[in-house]
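A protein record pairs a chain with a discrete description of its three-dimensional fold. The shape at a given residue is found from the number at the same position. Here is what such a record looks like in full:
>
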Amino acid sequence: MNPPTPTHYDTLEKLWRRIHHLDHLQSIASWDQAANMPTKGNEARAAALAEISTCIHELLTAPNVETLLSQAAQETLAPPQKGNLREMKRVWQIRNALPASLVRRKDLAESRCEHAWRIQRPANDWQGFLVNFEEVLSCSREEADRLSQALGVSKYDAMMNKYEPGLTTVAVDRLFGELKTWLPGLIQEVTKRQIQEVTIQPQGPFEPQIQKVLCEQVMRLLGFDFEAGRLDVSTHPFCGGVPEDVRMTTRFTSHEFITSLFGTIHETGHGRYEQNRPREWLGQPASNARSMAIHESQSLFFEMQLGCHPGFLANLSPLIIEAFGYQKAFEPQALAQLLTRVKPGLIRVDADEVTYPAHIMLRYDIERQLIEGDIEAADIPSLWDAHMSSLLALDTRDNFKDGPLQDVHWPMGLFGYFPCYSMGAMYAAQWFASIEKAIPNVHTDIHNGNLQPIWEWLNDNIWEKASFWPTVELAQKASGSELDLRYFKRHLYKRYLGETL
């Protein structure tokens, strides 16, 4: 008996499995480039990564793929297959708009710029950075222009669509516009109130190797599977690799440990999302994380909603004391005061959750103008200074390393990503509010160290749903509504002012 003839959809699934295997190698090589690779290996690694990107691009843009997508749409498919086909078409539309030559040129430019940025940032070398960055920007503008024409949207909308499907500047402007009506007043009110509070600063030094052991203990507490992942060190913390081999990184300094610990908690949220994507669909685009805003909702749920919860801090405190010895600063209440301190600062990744959106609004405004061609790279410092002054009353003039050089995103060409961070914080508050309704004893569970009900809710509503549904539908099914800023506002007012809205 002859086996059944593969359908057009079957042929597409086989193609995507090949792409998945190449992407696996590319992800691990990229992690190694950031965490382990010696300096002199960068040019060769950049060329190798560009070659893999080109191979993937050529597979996706082969002439027969458009025909296969069209014919598969006429076949009888189960609902998960329909969701997978929708994601295939979305990926194909983006890839097909870009020539292989641009993909290769952009990959090389980003690798060179990011590698040089690691030295230029601590050296405060803005002019040196511009040499490589202008080529990254040129490639990104060409990419935006081609995607804009293919998708029928603005250039910056086309770039955001890569990370958050369907997101528009109209939607972001609405969210940020509403945020601006109450956030500045909240910042002023909280900082005024906290002037009267005394916080106890932990006294170092804190041995980095002991910090790493502590971070790994907390990762286990949060359910990270070390048989399918690991923790290493890089210049900029990130979560990479693949679901079967998640590669997380953090960074350590001996004078304090809170940044590395909570950075690790943040990345563990990303890592657990990846580790719990539906295994039976791995290799298909529907198994991918829904979007970067949803991905950030997981990391910020872990870091802010759960990590700063009084019940979680009661369980975290003994681990910190075991690692570094007793200090009054390590008691749960002292940790809570330290972690909820609101103070405008220069560095985005160190910002408290109240002032953090200001950092995102700044970057959103600048990169949108960059991609649309309204400003040039050389204009960034003056705009940065103006925004930091108006949003956070801080002076950043001539401080490039703590200003526009502080993030890895622009040297890596990740334009359109930044709005996802604040949207992720908004979604995280929305998920926790839904969990409170679904699990009435959740606060007691957290205090007792019983996090399993939370993991089950996240798995059932976010992790295993992957990309089978569009983002709006995912949010509605999980929480009863699409993204709603009111949940984030209620969370901040309750945590920082003790007010219930």
Summary: The longest helix spans residues 8-35. The chain has a mean pLDDT of 95. The beta strands are 229-233, 239-242, 245-250.
